[in-house]
Amino acid sequence: MRKRLILIVGVMAMVLVLSACGAGADEEVKNSDDPIVLGSFVDTEGGILGNMILLALEDNGYQIEDKVQFGTPDVHRNALLEGELHIGVDYTGNGQFYSEGFEEDLWRDGEEGYQAIKGYDEENNNLIWLSPAKANNTEALAVKREFAESNDITDMYDFAEYVNNGGYVKFITSQLFAEKYTGLLGMEEAYGFTLTPDQLIMLPHGNTAETLSALANETDGVNVALAYGTDGSIADLDLVVIDDPLSIPPVYEPSAIVRGEVLEKYPEIQEIIEEVFATLNLENLQEMNKLVIVDGASPRDVAQDHLVENGLIEE
């Protein structure tokens, strides 16, 4: 009988431990019979952002079904639409591919683009886009920090002046970026400069790991490279992104998307998630991506460290 009592007590203790899993140590589980399914893109940044949301919600007493790094953008989007995911992470600029009836130029304005997809998805798909982080992960031109400082280049107006004054340029980029008006052609027209064919190295792909490596190593004389705003290699290689004040490529700011019925049931999760995203910017996302891609840290550990440093969860 004594052994049976010990077994029962042990099982009950295990149940209590498991029931608290996914909640902060002092938090009662708010949705023990109704876990929130959370996903994100399969890439490194998706892993970091997804884990930030997961850890913040768990710390506030929510049980989360972890599907962080769920899949490619199209798979992730379809899962949100079908209700397979309750919360996801996407970028405002992708709204141009999800919606209809908006002018192309609208997506160059961060706030207008956000409001456009927010209104469209809420009305048509019952998906709610929360306030995005101010970290534009769009296509951009990158240079070495030393080069930028010695030539006083901080934005594309400065770069245009450098080009027009006869400055040396060898730009490695994808062919697509070089030939589209939401890319180099648009930048040339907007800022008033022109790069000649001999100033370009055009690749058939947009692999920025390759373009940034060429820049860092000055391969074939490269001193300008195509980048994405939050590329981890930028921080690792001491490169800088040239600011694009006119936002010629569309603005891609990360945002959490929540299914309407979930947000209606648990409205407080909006404030929790938006508080997390308010701590993000271009530089700290570059550094966090670098910690995963270059230094080998796990996205979850990087996410946790960021939340602890910003006082959003306890260690």
Unreliable spans are: 1-21
What is the oligomeric state here?
single chain
Approximate shape: globular
Number of domains: 2
Major sheet summary line: 5 strands, mixed
What average pLDDT do the residues reach? Answer: 91
Give a count of the beta strands, DSSP E runs of length 2 or more.
Answer: 10
Helix/strand layout:
Layout: H1 2-20, E1 36-41, H2 44-59, E2 64-71, H3 73-82, E3 87-91, H4 95-98, H5 110-125, E4 127-129, E5 139-144, H6 145-150, H7 156-164, E6 171-174, H8 175-178, H9 184-191, E7 200-203, H10 208-217, E8 224-228, H11 232-236, E9 239-241, E10 254-259, H12 260-265, H13 268-277, H14 282-293, H15 299-309
Parallel strand pairs: 1-2, 6-7, 6-8
Antiparallel strand pairs: 3-10, 4-10, 5-8, 5-9
Helix pairs in contact: 2-13, 2-15
Key features of this structure:
D-Maltodextrin-Binding Protein, domain 2; 10 strands; alpha/beta; 46% helix; 315 residues
Give a summary of the structure in a few sentences.
Helix content is 46%, strand content 16%. With 315 residues, the protein is α/β, with parallel strands linked by helices. The protein has two domains: 170 residues, D-Maltodextrin-Binding Protein, domain 2 (3-Layer(aba) Sandwich); 103 residues, Osmoprotection protein (prox), domain 2 (D-Maltodextrin-Binding Protein, domain 2, 3-Layer(aba) Sandwich), CATH 3.40.190.
